[in-house]
Design a protein that fits this description.
The complex is a heterodimer of chains A (336) and B (281). Chain A has 336 residues and is α/β, with parallel strands linked by helices. Helix content of chain A is 33%, strand content 21%. In chain A, the strands form two sheets. In chain A, strands 3-2-5-6-7-8-1-9 form an eight-stranded mixed sheet. Chain A has a three-stranded antiparallel sheet with strand order 4-11-10, with no helix packed on it. Chain A is globular. Chain A starts with a strand and ends with a helix. Chain B has seven helices and 15 strands. In chain B, the strands form three sheets. Chain B has a seven-stranded mixed sheet with strand order 10-9-8-7-11-12-15, with helices on both faces. A six-stranded antiparallel sheet of chain B has the order 4-3-6-1-2-5. Chain B is an alpha/beta fold. In chain B, 19% of the residues lie in helices and 31% in strands. Chain B has two domains: 95 residues, Beta Barrel (Elongation Factor Tu (Ef-tu), domain 3); 122 residues, Nucleotide-binding domain of ferredoxin-NADP reductase (FNR) module (Rossmann fold, 3-Layer(aba) Sandwich), CATH 3.40.50.80. The termini of chain B are far apart. The chains are: A alpha/beta (336), B alpha/beta (281).
């Protein structure tokens, strides 16, 4: 819609101005990079992808669906959510939210997710220097993709260049008042150059053409056993995937206080599909890996017209046995 | 957070009646329940083939097929095998107790498209539960259908569900064929497996719809035999099950290929299932 600029030295004032709105930004907690509430006086986050994607802000790892008292049938809903601003979300993670929106609004609206999503403003930060395993450009994104974002920032060294993309973004920028300056025409040129250069820096690529249509044809292929052979079934590739949304629902009762909650689950776990009879339609890592890849690159495309992968590289970076989705896709391409 | 339209909030029902269909380790108990809220009772309206998430607060929920037809009255019936944590807790419920119910979920048997046709159900064990609503529905609208035949078998006579109902069905002109796997003293019907009974009944495929549900092994042989009897893939229907949590296509786990059993199913034609390699996993 329009562009503005924020001087980095004014970051403290920026944090103070947004303080009332629950500002989240990438932070280091121990060894782990996460999105967490920003405290006054904290510095500008200078990280690429966080270890834990920001999906937990709109889709908590565990959340209460409703509460009840043991032995009673009255159910009470958790309190409504507050407005939140996510600062420094990378374009791939914002695209992931836009992708998952389709699922959570498919026929039956999921009120928990959609309410949090509606109350969250995403201020993205373009990647000037993408990471080694980033492959966003192969799956429809890019280091400066705006999909899902309300504001896109580009780091110009001394300043952030702001592109206001949605009404939510506009509202946020208006609330910042004089903290923002007008951008100059030269700034826009510099930004465009940075975006182009960033795209050039992405070294890992795959042409996904033909994969969604033909993947099911490889159902009985040997390659699934080969790919999943080293898999430990730890589930990290799905837990920390920004587009993975599968959940379990469990009841918890402590004394008289009961709650039904949902929590992230993973299709890489055996219990995920285990029937009460003991039968398991996906009994080994072979079937589970096949489901994970098919879901992202075929089923989701059939249902929602989009590949459910944003190329963030987390599943590659974090897999303890170095299973690499791009290597899988390369093998798939060879077998097609 | 709004309560209206929240698909995870169940309705409260009261158990009106319960009885055991079968006994033993994996016994099957039927629950007849009525919604506490009069508005829900009036507006519920499920279709034959649909399922519901039933449960107990503090324990959890299980997806169970609704084993009655809407033509039977303003109540619901569930026939539940005692197997896991939730079904064990459900089995403790007695008349007057509360059960949570949300749904109805999934697609249903296309009963309107089948008008004027002969309906053949082929069930095994607890697989008769999802077939019972279609039998009841066709029975209630018998003038709209050419014929109703039901083939049903279990391991022993003690493993047959809804036993008392078949005699009444026969008197109304429903063709009932019962079987047990192992010879028993005084058993007047067929002895053998359901797929063999199917060949023995030898139904004419012309203008017929065959619907089957039961253990995977039985379904596989029933499908083979229906093909031998010259049924086309479009004339054969089955209902599938998988572990489920949400019932609305979001929690992820019940898929066979790209199809969610809770939403795109549980009723599938064989023509559709043949294209899904995972369907019979």
């Amino acid at each position: 819609m329009y562009s503005m600029k924020l001087r980095k030295e004014k970051y403290d004032d920026f944090v103070a101005a947004l303080g009332k709105q629950n500002l989240y930004a990438p932070q280091k907690k121990g060894e782990t990079l996460v999105f967490a509430p920003v405290e006054a006086g904290s510095s500008i986050p200078e990280f690429l992808n966080t270890t834990v994607p920001p999906k937990n802000i709109v889709y908590p790892q565990t959340e209460t669906l409703y509460c009840f008292q043991a032995g009673d049938t009255e159910m009470s809903l958790p309190e409504g959510d507050e407005e939140k601003v996510v600062f420094g979300i990378r374009p791939c993670d914002a695209r992931a939210m836009a992708l998952v929106d389709d699922l959570f609004s498919w026929d039956d609206d999921d009120p928990y997710y959609l309410e949090k999503r509606a109350k969250t403003t995403l201020v993205g930060l373009a990647c000037n220097a993408p990471d080694n395993n980033c492959f966003c450009t192969s799956v429809g994104g890019g280091p400066a993709s705006t999909e899902g974002l309300d504001v896109l920032l580009t780091d110009l060294g001394e300043t952030f260049f702001l592109q206001v993309l949605t009404e939510k973004g506009e509202k946020l920028c208006q609330s910042l008042g004089e903290l923002l300056e007008k951008a100059a025409e030269d700034d826009l040129k510099a930004v465009e150059k940075l975006h182009e250069e960033a795209e050039q820096k992405i070294s890992r690529k795959i042409d996904t053409e033909g994969i969604p249509d033909k993947l099911m044809g490889l159902w009985d292929s040997e390659l699934w056993a080969e790919i999943s052979e080293p898999c430990l079934g730890c589930g990290i590739c799905t837990y920390l995937c920004p587009t993975c949304y599968c959940f379990d629902i469990q009841d918890e009762v402590e004394g008289y206080d009961g709650r039904r909650c949902r929590m992230w689950d993973s299709c890489m776990f055996g219990e995920y599909t285990l029937h009460a009879s003991g039968h398991n339609p996906r009994p080994t890592n072979r079937e589970r890996t096949r489901n994970r890849v098919n879901h992202k690159y075929s089923y989701y495309v059939e249902k929602f017209g989009k590949i459910a992968c944003v190329g963030c590289g987390r599943c590659i970076n974090l897999c303890p046995v170095n299973i690499d989705i791009l290597n899988i896709l390369t093998k798939v391409k060879e077998a097609l | 957070m709004k309560e209206n339209g929240n698909p995870y909030i169940p309705h409260i029902t009261t158990v009106e009646d319960t009885w055991y269909e079968t006994y033993g380790d994996r016994c099957i108990k039927t629950f007849k329940v009525v919604f506490d809220d009069e508005e829900v009772r009036e507006s519920w309206g499920h279709r034959p083939g649909q399922c519901a998430m039933i449960g107990r607060l503090g324990v959890g929920e299980s997806m169970i097929s609704i084993s009655c037809s809407p033509t039977e009255g303003k109540f619901l019936r569930f026939s539940v095998m005692r197997l896991g944590k939730v079904t064990r807790a459900l089995h403790e419920l007695e008349p007057g107790d509360k059960m949570t119910v949300r749904g109805p979920y999934g697609n249903s048997f296309p009963v309107d498209d089948w008008k004027g046709k002969k309906i053949l159900t082929i069930g095994g064990g607890v697989g008769q539960a999802p077939l019972r609503p279609i039998i009841e529905y066709v029975r209630a609208n018998l003038a709209d259908y050419e014929e109703l035949t039901t083939i049903y078998g279990a391991r022993t006579s003690g493993d047959l569900c809804f036993k008392s109902e078949f005699e009444a069905f026969s008197k109304e002109g429903v063709k009932c064929h019962l079987s047990i796997d192992i010879e028993e003293e005084g058993w007047p019907h067929y002895v053998g497996f359901v797929p063999s009974l199917l060949m023995d009944v030898n139904p004419n495929p012309e203008n017929t719809i065959a619907i089957t549900c039961g253990p995977p092994v039985m379904i596989n042989f029933v499908l083979q035999n229906l093909k031998k009897l010259n049924f086309s893939d479009e004339q054969i229907y089955t209902t599938l099950e998988n572990r489920m949590k949400c019932g609305i296509g979001k929690c992820g786990r019940c898929n066979v290929g790209s199809q969610y059993i809770c939403k795109d199913g549980p009723v599938f034609s064989y023509a559709t299932l043949k294209k899904i390699p995972e369907a019979f996993a």
